Amino acid sequence: MIPKLHYTSQAQSTAAHLENIQKACSSGAELVQLDLEHIAGKDHLKLAQEVIKITAHFQTRLVIKSHYKIAHEIKADGIYLEQNDACPTLAREHLYPWQTIGATAHNLQECETLLTKEVDYIGLGPFRISQKNETKALGINGYTAIYEDLKTETPLIGFGDITPEDVKYILKTGISGIAVADAITQNFDLIKTFNQLLGASSTDEMRHTFK
Question: What stretches of the chain show up as alpha helix (H) in DSSP?
């Protein structure tokens, strides 16, 4: 089962990533996605190795964004691919069978394409427009329409400036869970709030591994 809350660490320094992820794990995060975009390439592997020490201690799942070779080398729980990253089928060839693949989609057609590539879950958004994305916001109506047309059991994870107030409405659309970055980084207490709203607090069901 894919956890319902994904915390994305998007820090701009190694120290900030480690601090954020330590706080997220100690606050009850079940899945952390490491975004290496703002870190120098020569430091990617070393940072990932330090991060997995933290997540392993807390039994938190670690997903590496974009860099499937690093995910393979450190035996992270999975990878997450943006649309400009490697094709999921190519990445799969370089991963262990138990490692999961998530990938981004912005509309129904993109979701349908990803399903043919056997991804384990789809990041669908943005739910709301922010300065970081220029793609059309899907909102509640967009999520509802895509879920109803897609007719898939593959989990859809919403993203894009989602707040606690949005969660109950998003879940009614058929979306399985959410990915949150900035809001949690600014207030790690929100992890507990989101978990409660998602019904994803630390239960035995949600603790089993990807394997």
Answer: 14-26, 44-58, 68-74, 88-92, 108-116, 139-150, 167-172, 182-186, 190-198, 204-207
